[in-house]
Amino acid sequence: MHRERAAAILEQEARACHHMDAGLYADLLVRAAADVRAGGPCAEALEGYADAPGSAAVPLRLLGAVHALVLTGRAPELAGYYPSAGGAYRPEDADATWVAFRAVVAAERDTLRGWLPRPPQTNEVGRANLLLAGLLHAVAETGRRPVRLLEIGASAGLNLRADRFRVTSGDFAWGPADSPVLLPDAWRGGVPGWLRDAARTVPALDVVERLGCDLTPLDPGDEDDVLALRAYLWPEHTARAARLVGALQLAAHVPARVVATGAADFLAGIRPEPGSLTVVWHSIMRQYVPADEWARVTTELDRLAVASTPDAPVAHLSFEPHPVDEPPVQLRARLGAGPQRLLAEAHPHGLPAWAV
Fold it and tell me: What pLDDT band is residue 323 in, cutting at 50, 70 and 90?
């Protein structure tokens, strides 16, 4: 039964990868599921993890662990099929790729099992497309003033530098022209009018505080943590990898702080500040938070909403699936104690977005 559960989880993720243009991983996971059922190396590597908390992320943990070996030169034959390592993948290479992958799992079992407890973290930079749109909306609606940017589930805090990214879509552009992070073709079907209006009102942002929290924060200046960020990106998604590189460059000279604590405890210490807009945002982290913890988060967000004033406004921006774990992924904004407003929907990685 444990093996069947593990195989089912692998197959579920294979379907998700197929729908998100990750054919390499989709093909590998289908074969890995069969290998688990047969008691092969994948079954040995995953033994005990299928029934552990967070088991839905087991496929991504296994793939990330192997990808880390590829990126560090410890799986040279497999690297030939990984675009992230200079290789190339074609559907007709599926069987040969699987043979190389299975050999790595068999040879590196202990290394892989040492990686598996790590939570998947990509710190997806593309999601800043939605977060920035919501931020421009909030600033335009509450009056231009300095911004305190607070992120729960911040990972390495890369999106705390989002105001330094450049977003483009047709004739629309916002952000520094020389930014190392470009978010192109950001909107499908045209940029919504509310965003165009907000971007005209707010041509630049004055971010005076960049603070986040995460249970297991990553340090963008640490080689091992950067490897984890790179490894959890899918190897065919080279544009995502390029955005990550640019965000890491920004992180080297734009300070931000991420503290190791839960979201509710983090928010409990936050108070609105006169003269500034306090923004709490998060993206695709809700599904990883236990229900009792999220209830506490909601209580703290409501407290901040009620404490919001015209001179010390508070905004809550979320880019999350609604309902939890199911598409579509939606950008929602709540200004002060007002109603939550649905602003847009988007691809889970943030590009493209579309108006609702």
Answer: confident
Q: Which residue has the higher pLDDT, 1 or 204?
A: 204
How far lies 15's CA from each of 21, 98, 107, in Å? 10, 17, 27
Of 73, 121, 110, give the one whose Cα is nearest residue 231: 121
CA distance 305 to 297: 12
Rounded Cα gap, residues 136 and 192, in angstroms:
13
Give the separation between CA 3 and CA 51, rounded to whole angstroms: 10
Rounded to whole angstroms, the Cα distance separating 325 from 323 reads 6
Q: What is the pTM of this model?
A: 0.94
79: left (phi over 0), alpha (psi -120 to 50) or beta: alpha
Is the model's pLDDT at 270 over the cut of 80? yes
User: Would you say 46 and 8 are in contact if contact means Cβ atoms under 8 Å apart?
Assistant: no
Using CB atoms within 10 A of its CB, is residue 86 exposed (0-12), middle (13-18) or buried (19+)?
A: exposed
Burial category of 309 from C-beta neighbours within 10 Å (exposed 0-12, middle 13-18, buried 19 and up): exposed
Report CA dihedral (173, 256, 217, 301) to the nearest 10 degrees.
-80
The separation between the first and the last C-alpha atoms of the chain, rounded to the nearest angstrom, is 43
C-alpha 51/C-alpha 48 separation (Å) is: 6
Render pLDDT for 122-175 as a digit per residue (tens, 0 to 9): 899 999 999 999 999 999 999 999 999 999 999 999 999 999 999 999 999 999
